Amino acid sequence: MTYFVDIVANWFSTIGFNAFFARLASSCLCALTIALGSMVFCFTVSMLLKRFIISRKEIRHHYQKTAKLRSALLRLVFFWILQEWLPETFNWNEWTSHNISRLLSIAMVISTALAVCAAVTWLMSLEKVRSNAKNLSSKVMVQILKIITWCAASIIIISILMNKSPVLILSGLGALTAVLMLIFKDSIVGLVAGIQVAQNDMVRVGDWITMSKFNADGTVIDIALTTVKVRNFDNTVTMIPSSALISDAFVNWRYMSLSKGRRIKRPVWISATSIREMTAEFKKDLVDRNLILETDNPISNLAAFEIWLLRMLEQNDDITKELTCMVRQTEPSDTGIPVEIYAFTKTRDWEEYEKIQTAVFDLIYITAQKFSLQIYQRTGDKYLPAS
């Protein structure tokens, strides 16, 4: 390269330039030629890669996903070419050559960091497509790798500017650790919490979570390093700090959706004043109505109602037989005697679940009157009338 600079400088001297300006003009012209040549080379490689990827059906769908990676790599190649050739064009001036080399070294470091970040982002997209996983622990790890990459790049850039070894820069940062931890306390806490959330699989994208402290009740749509984004059922969006998921209580309904059924656990409140001893006539009436069997021996109308209720649940096609299905009494209170339904629907879909639960309790409210039972309702001192 020095040979060509000398030739061009001699030509500028022959047309009237003095020695200094001839050298300067020659160096600038050669530098411009190198830069333009590098740009043409990178553009040509980019076009060839584009045509190659598009022509291959099996990798054509990667074209858009690799756009940033290809741009970052070509940018790195561009600055590498400049780093190799450009300082030599100004070797006649040590100060200029040295500073150009430093600037290009910084550009190389930044380009390398951008290329690494683009590469890990591309690898994450491939992993998501391959595994079709909804948990974004990989995204958190990618963000951590990007932070480490840029921290390393910053240290190297500072060392280049200060003309010191990166080891000396790191040793100097050790004295500032306490100050940095105080300034970036929240960021560090969020970073550690984000890693814990991801690695312990506490939350995934698509999970339904409830967190009353932040008025969050909806579906997780994004998990970042320091925040979790939740779309509530009213279509508002709540941003929850990752640290809150570690320190505060929240409900994740994922395992319910992964189970064999969705639980129904709701009581029917029966007025204690409507409970009667079972008589032969009343039993015969219930048998004639196909509410109980002749072989059943309830001691009260409430016991007969519980027998019918359990049998109704067992015969319901929407109630799973693989999980617990029972009817029980819980502790009485001033609102009556609670008869609790404990069963599981086959479906886990929310809308279908609500329809099944509503149909079951509509039937209970109608049928309870046939057992001469009163459903408690706070309307003064009155109850729902029994037939």
Describe the structure.
By secondary structure, the chain is α+β, with helices and mostly antiparallel strands. It has 3 domains: 1-132, no CATH class; 133-252, SH3 type barrels (Roll), CATH 2.30.30; 259-371, 2-Layer Sandwich (Alpha-Beta Plaits), CATH 3.30.70. It contains 13 helices and 8 strands. The chain has helices at 2-14, 19-55, 67-85, 94-131, 137-162, 166-174, 177-183, 185-199, 242-247, 254-258, 280-288, 301-315, 350-368, and strands at residues 208-211, 216-223, 227-232, 237-241, 251-252, 262-270, 326-329, 337-345. The strands form 2 sheets. The protein has a 5-stranded antiparallel β-sheet with strand order 4-3-2-1-5. Strands 6-8-7 form a 3-stranded antiparallel β-sheet, with helices on one face. Helix 2 (19-55) runs antiparallel to helix 3 (67-85) and helix 5 packs across helix 6. It is elongated. The termini are far apart. 21% of the residues are buried.
What descriptive keywords fit this protein?
387 residues, alpha+beta, SH3 type barrels, Alpha-Beta Plaits, 3 domains, five-stranded antiparallel sheet, three-stranded antiparallel sheet, 13 helices
**Could you spell the SSE succession in H and E letters?**
HHHHHHHHEEEEHEHEHHEEH
Beta-strand percentage range: 5-15%
Strand order of the largest sheet: 4-3-2-1-5
Summarize the main sheet.
Answer: 5 strands, antiparallel
Silhouette: elongated
| Domain count | 3
In round numbers, the mean pLDDT is 80
* Structural class assignment: alpha+beta
Distance N to C terminus: 107 Å
Task: Determine the number of helices (DSSP H or I, runs of at least 4 residues).
Answer: 13
Rg over CA atoms, rounded to whole Å, is: 38 Å
Low-confidence stretches: 131-136
How many strands?
Answer: 8
